[in-house]
Q: What sequence folds into this?
């Protein structure tokens, strides 16, 4: 029971990763035990939530890769420059990435050179209290200009107009 209580105390804003468990030298079998006891739920490979906690797709997707950074129209939405809730999440990732995000149907991947990946990255606090990595507004605007053909004209024009006028939704 000691390990189970330790695991339940390690949750941050309702989330826990297997990395958290291994850092505290807790055998992973206790995660399985807590799942069977219906105290926690596995939402993705290596990501767990407490029962009755809403799944935050932003947190789950970003936990799949340490290189994942929300960008383009998703970052516009988070910065308040678009009122369209993302159906597909735009994520920038380093070139050569081979991982589970490529299999996600609700993700648009944008590849960038490793040395440019972290330029303009900021921490963004979600309403849930969880932190995610997104590009700052200036980098986001540069990216949507670069990827103009992949972004809807309406979102593009509105974001550019509001950015240069200094208006936010």
A:
């Amino acid at each position: 029971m000691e390990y189970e209580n330790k695991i339940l105390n390690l949750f941050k804003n309702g989330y826990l990763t297997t990395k958290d468990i291994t850092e505290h030298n807790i055998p992973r079998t206790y995660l399985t035990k807590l799942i069977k006891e219906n105290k926690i739920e596995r939402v993705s490979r290596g990501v767990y939530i407490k029962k009755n906690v809403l799944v935050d797709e932003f947190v789950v997707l970003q936990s799949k890769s340490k290189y994942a950074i929300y960008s383009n129209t998703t970052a516009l939405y988070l910065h308040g420059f678009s009122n369209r809730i993302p159906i597909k999440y735009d994520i920038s990732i380093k070139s050569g990435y081979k991982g589970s995000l490529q299999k996600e149907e609700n993700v648009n991947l944008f590849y960038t050179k490793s040395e440019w990946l972290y330029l303009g990255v900021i921490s963004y606090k979600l309403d849930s209290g969880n932190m995610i990595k997104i590009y700052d507004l200036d980098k986001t605007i540069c990216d949507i200009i670069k990827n103009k053909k992949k972004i809807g004209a309406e979102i593009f024009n509105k974001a550019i107009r509001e950015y240069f006028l200094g208006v936010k939704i």
Summary: The beta strands are 15-17, 40-44, 47-50, 69-70, 89-94, 107-112, 121-125, 131-135.
